Amino acid sequence: MRFHLIRLLTSIAALIVVALLALPAQAAGLLRDADMEHALKQIAAPILKAAGLSPERVKILVVDDSTLNAFVISNDAIFVHAGLINRLESAVMLQGVIAHEAAHIANGHIVRRLGNLDNARTISGLGLALAAAAAVSGNGAAAQGIALGSSTSAKRAFLSHTRAEEASADQSGIRFMKSAGASPQGLLDTLNIFAGQEALSVGRQDPYMRAHPLSRDRVRAVAGYVASYGTLPPDPTAEYWFARLQGKLSAYTRAPSWTLRRLKSESYADVRALREAIAEHRNSRTNKALAAIDTAIATRPKDPFFYDQKGQILLETRNFAAAAAAYGAAVKRAPNDPLILSGYGRALLASGNVKQALDALEKSRRQDFRDGSMLRDLATAYAKTGQTGMAALVTAERYALSGRMKDAGIHARRATGLLAEGSGPWQRAQDVLIASQRAAK
């Protein structure tokens, strides 16, 4: 698992809506992990299909924040806080969250709010969007500072949904769940977590409440929908992947002692071994960590993500050749997973196989540009092979992804001077340069 921070400036020019985002300095970030994102995809896919959305296009991404929240800021990603995932008790509760957020996309709430969101799919646009979204985890004033329209006429708040939108998303979300074979009770159970928070001051509410107005009438309406649609039995596949998602996330975000004390309560043997491996690795007991992950691999020998975890343990303990072999086994089983390819490229780079590393990292970037660690390693591989223009370009994109637009502009300007004018990479550098110039205004 890798932590990618999206750092906020004191103010960020809203390239998407031509507005100024007056935000306090803070940081938000994503937790990128191949296993977790695969688990999220397995849980979300039936819901997204029922909503008429593509599971290949709409990614579910985990925000490195212990508070309870979930949100959408574009039509191709749903963000869920790590704290909310750890707080939920079942796969169907998470499916309820995803169904509600998917409904905001399917019902056109995001399109109406942002108008043209094409820039949010670019490197700089994603960094800006994440920076904007991070405001909902701050105080109420910060969230209110994100507005649509011109700098002289702020319109509707950027993140906060109206009560009408929330009611619409609840109704559609429950319909999606029913169509997908997921019990609508999951959404009601999730909303009950926030019961009574409307009576608290804004500063004491969970971020979810600030972005998703919750009232007793809304909860009663959802309860009525659930009574009408009925409940459904749990889906064993979804429950397995939820246990694996929550088990891995908690093993990385809670103290190793907490994880080790609770191993016996884990009903899935492979998930139990995975959690043990992570906890022992974090305790610097490498032999025990490797023994545990080998137990998980023996349980599911075709699973690429256990090899990916083994590769990470070996890489972080500086056993580079063995790490490359473990990642290679993962790539053999999942040749197109961008995060596995990213880890493989890093291990190859560390072991001195620069050309092979470059191939893996370039393939990873083509699949998913959101991985900041991959971009850093890719820039290193380009530099080591004498491709200084490409190294500058990828570095510019990495800074743009993290919201550091001034630094992005410096490297983008350098890249435009080194790359062939009019080429694809030169155009990418121009995009980042223009974005940094707009941000400076």
Radius of gyration: 22 Å
Overall number of strands: 7
H/E element string? EEEEHEEEHHHHHHHHHHHHHHHHHHHHH
Model regions low in confidence, pLDDT < 50 over at least 5 residues: 3-27, 115-121, 126-159
Walkthrough of the structure:
With 441 residues, the chain is α+β, with helices and mostly antiparallel strands. The chain has a domain at 2-229: Zincin-like (2-Layer Sandwich), CATH 3.30.2010.10. Helix content is 62%, strand content 8%. It has 22 helices and 7 strands. The chain has helices spanning 34-50, 82-87, 91-106, 109-114, 123-134, 140-144, 163-180, 185-193, 207-211, 216-229, 236-253, 256-261, 269-282, 286-299, 304-316, 320-333, 338-350, 354-367, 372-384, 388-401, 405-418, 424-440, and strands at 2-7, 11-14, 19-22, 27-32, 59-63, 70-74, 77-81. The strands form 2 sheets. A 5-stranded mixed beta sheet has the order 1-4-5-7-6. Strands 2-3 form a two-stranded antiparallel ribbon. A hairpin with a 2-residue loop joins strand 6 and strand 7. The chain is globular, with a radius of gyration of 22 Å. It starts with a strand and ends with a helix. 53% of the residues are buried. Mean pLDDT is 82; it is low at 3-27, 115-121 and 126-159.
